[in-house]
TrEMBL record:
Name of this protein: Intraflagellar transport protein 25 homolog
Entry's transmembrane regions: none
Highest taxon listed in the record's lineage: Eukaryota
Boundaries of every F5/8 type C domain copy: 18-105
UniProt-listed Pfam families: F5_F8_type_C
Keyword Metal-binding annotated: yes
SUPFAM superfamilies to which the protein is assigned, alphabetical: Galactose-binding domain-like
Organism: Pteropus vampyrus
GO cellular component terms attached to this protein's record: centrosome; cilium; intraciliary transport particle B
Length: 130
């Protein structure tokens, strides 16, 4: 079975909320598939964004690349609307000045029920490339 990056606009994913936006680095850059583009925030904390998949998907792995993130909290919803989010994953990240934070979260260790979502929300920090 071919693995698909479900968090791409070309796969139907959409950023439906972002608490911050920069004209040169908008939230949609997170899901465009281009490793040269990214979302940057205004520097205020916490920051949050929601990615909508427009269908239920099974998530096996999340890759987060960021700068200056202390704590990453990921919530998920199986609702058809962006409501009823439940806390899913929370991680404290190590920050080294000037270094990109690369965090890979293997979801396949969770139960199948825990892997299903139609929306995921990310809270805290400046995030790059999903």
């Amino acid at each position: 079975m071919r693995k698909v990056d479900l968090c791409l606009s070309s796969e139907g994913a959409e950023v439906i909320l972002a608490t911050s936006s920069d004209e040169k680095h908008p939230p949609e850059n997170m899901i465009d598939g281009n490793l040269e583009t990214f979302w940057t925030t205004t520097g205020m904390f916490p920051q949050e964004f929601i990615v909508c998949f427009h269908k239920h998907v099974r998530i096996e792995r999340l890759v987060i690349q960021s700068y200056f993130v202390r704590t990453l909290r990921i919530e998920k919803s199986t609702s058809t609307e962006p409501v009823d989010f439940e806390q899913w994953i929370e991680r404290d990240l190590v920050h080294t000045e000037g270094q990109l934070q690369n965090e890979e979260i293997m979801i396949s260790k969770l139960t199948v029920q825990d892997q299903n979502a139609s929306r995921i929300g990310f809270c805290h920090g400046d995030h790059r490339h999903l």
